[in-house]
Amino acid sequence: MKTAYTSLLVIAMLTLFLSNQIQVSVAVTCSPVQLAPCLGAIMSSSTPPSNACCSRLREQKPCLCGYMKDPTLKQYVNTPNGKKVANTCDVPLPNC
User: Fold this and answer.
1) C or N: which end of the chain has fewer Cβ atoms within 10 Å?
2) For 58-70, how does the pLDDT look when each residue is reduced to its tens digit (9 = 90+)?
């Protein structure tokens, strides 16, 4: 009987733990300067994006809508080469 209570207690604790898992998220500081490694690939269709570019693009993904709404930055993000870089890096451009 003692084993049954111990098993139930362990199951209850696991259920409680799994249902209350805390998800930690890292805040992203939106800074278009962080996308500097992508500039060559965005400016030239013959230059593929580097690993550093793709990594930074993934990090800045939550910021892309803001960049697309900024008239100065939109010309880089929302161009055929900008879309190609995002596609190559497997970062879908958001619909803003």
Assistant:
1) N
2) 999 999 999 999 9
Q: Are 48 and 92 in contact (CB under 8 A)?
A: no
79 DSSP assignment: S
What does pTM read for this prediction? 0.68
Residue 28: helix, strand or coil by DSSP? coil
Please tell me the distance from the alpha carbon of residue 24 to that of residue 8, in angstroms, as a whole number: 29
Residues 6+ apart with CB under 8 A from 82: 42, 76, 93
CB atoms within 10 A of CB 57: 24
Q: Which residue has the tokens 């998800």?
A: 23
What is the residue whose two structure tokens read 């929302």?
78
- Do residues 59 and 65 touch, judged by C-beta distance below 8 A? no
CA distance 90 to 11: 40
